[in-house]
Each structure stands twice: as structure tokens, then as C-alpha cells.
Write the C-alpha cells for this entry.
Amino acid sequence: MNVLPIVKRPWWGRAIALLALFLTLTGCTLPRVSAEERLFLPLAVELLDTYEIPKSSFEGVPVGGLSAIAYERVSDRFLVLSDDRSSEAPARFYTMAMELDRTEPAHPTISGITVERATPLHNQDGTTFAAGSIDPEGLALSPRQTVFISSEGDTSQGIPPFIQEFDRETGEWRSSLPLPQRYLPKLDEEAPSGVRNNLGFEALALDPGGTTISNGYGEPFRIFAAVEGALAQDQPTVPEAPEPLRLLHYLVSENVPALLAEHLYYLEPTPAGVLYNGLTELLVLGQGGHFLSLERTFGANGAGAKLFQLAVANATDTSSIRVFEGDLSLIQPIHKQLLLDLNTLGFPLDNLEAMTLGPRLPDGSQSLILLSDDNFSDRQTNQVLLFRITGL
């Protein structure tokens, strides 16, 4: 007589079998989570307050054109970039303080925002930027006490875009990040290329990575930049096709900074009646390849904005692709998930361009700040939106 061997199941095997039996008997099923959903964090945002920075001047110069913001946790201050092209005063960023009303800890509000300082930016030769030579749009605070600032340049005047590093305290020039040739504007009637006018490097974000040491350097960190609209050579030829943008991924260390990769980012389709549609900001969420992106529209019905969560995992490195043309189906773009359509908040939006994680709120949760650019116009405002973000 043959005796079958006794095979002992491991404990987890018995547990799975019991769970399967339970589900069969009760008719219950486990919730299904798609592979796409598993890419994203379980984020949620809650609007806490809106605030309008009053029209004012600082040191005799109008405070306006606020196009980028970064929070400095140690000082509990915000660095806010003006997109003034050195017309009102030399190109600059502001240091601002925000006061929160904590009367209701679960629902804090903004009680005031104060401009404390203006820091002018300096060229490599030590002078401030001449009028019209810069269009500052993106700002990121680095762990080595510097700020990286992106300029869209001015294609119509042959002024190229840049991403440069400046001293946090003095505004003195420190370094530049290399830009591939395909981003530099080329005004060729038959085959234009490079960033289009006013659609260059609007979005800039930094993943701090390590810590700073005494000589100004520490662990390498990463910089991410994206164009607001498709490069001239990348514009789709079919009107209904989504607009392909490019996101750049840099590694910055004490050695020469290096461009590690580029990725394809599809802009949302332009709604009817909208004149301007673009990606205005990026925000790094930890070091797992997750981001927030802010897309802004403007048209006959006013301004609009949408907040997305991004996952770069599995996105194709497109740095070797000179032109986005033809069939792009073999390219895996950055994954996007709508987090909030700000048009559903129930009040008029202004020209939202800036975004940062702010201070911890009284209940310990994380704040998220959005800020608009008033374009130095009396018909627009510097609008501040305070959110609570959970799921990080």
C-alpha cells in the first residue's frame, strides 16, 4: 500500500485558505485596486481659507507678479518670486511671513501676510539683471542655502531661458544647470524649435535628498523643471491631440550638475473658450517619485486651475528623443491623477501659478499653499489659498 506523504502547509498558506473559505461562504469579495491606482498616494486636500494680499509697495516698489513660492521651515518664512522682468525694479524674490489665526485649531485661517525683505538677483558678472533680460517664473530652495530660479527668457528677443542658482541671502550668482540645445529658441520660419514665447520653464521643484554640511555641500539632491507649453518642434499637428510637455530631472552635487532624464507629460486638453492653458508648477512629495502639478487656464470665462498627483514610476526616459512627432504610443508618459478641480470650490479663481508645502497646522497636519500672480494689474489679485493635505 502506498502511503501519501503528509505535507504541512506554512501558517500563511492556511490563513489564505481560511480567508478564501470565508469569502466563499459569506459572498464577500475583496476590493479591487487597479495597477494604475496603486501608483498613487492616498491624497486628499481640504480648503481651509482664502486670502488676498493687499495691493502695496515695499521699498517704493509695487509688490506683485508673484509667480513662485517656497517655504523655509527653519525660519518659518516664505520665499516668493516676482516675475517682474527688472521693469519696476531689479529682478528679485521676497521674504514673507504668514500669520495664522489658530482660534479654531481644526480650521485655521490666514490673518495676515507681511513682506519683510526683497533680495535682488545678480548676474554672473555681479550686476543686477537689465530690464527685459530675464523672465523669472520658478523658484526652489536648496539645502545648501541657495535658491534655484528659472527664467523663460524672451523668444521674441532671442533671449534664451535658464535655470540658475543664487545665494539665499545675497542673491549672488552661484551656478547654472545645463540645458539641452532643443530647449534654446530658434526662430526659423520653416522649422522653429525651442521654448515658445512665455511658455518656457514655469515649473521648478526640488527634492532635497540629503543634508547640508559646513562647506556648503552635502548629499546630492534633485531638481525637476518643466516647460509650460510644448516646445515649438513638439507641437502636435492634430488639433485634438494632447500637448506633449517635457519634464527634466537633474542631479546636483559638488561636481558638475547632470541631467539624468527627461519624461513626457501630457497637458490636459484646452477647453473651449480658453486662450491660455499650461503647466505652471510642480511640487515634490517625498522621494518616491510622486509630485503634485498645477495646471492653469485663462479665457473668456476667467481663470481656472486643476491640481494633479503625478507618479514618475515606469515613465520612459525621453532624453534621446529630439522631437515628439508621429505615433507616441510606445512612450510611457508620466502618470496623472486628478486631485482637485479648483473650479468646483465655488468662488472666482485668479491666475494661480505658485505652490508649496507650508508649515504644520495646529492639529499637526500638513498645509499646502497656492498663490496667484496678479500681473501687476489692478483687475487681478495676489490670491492665497490655504489647504490641508493628507495621505503623505
Observations:
- The chain is about 5% helix and 45% strand.
- Confidence is low (pLDDT under 50) at residues 1-26, 210-215.
- The first strand starts at residue 44 and ends at 53.
- The chain has one domain: 38-390.
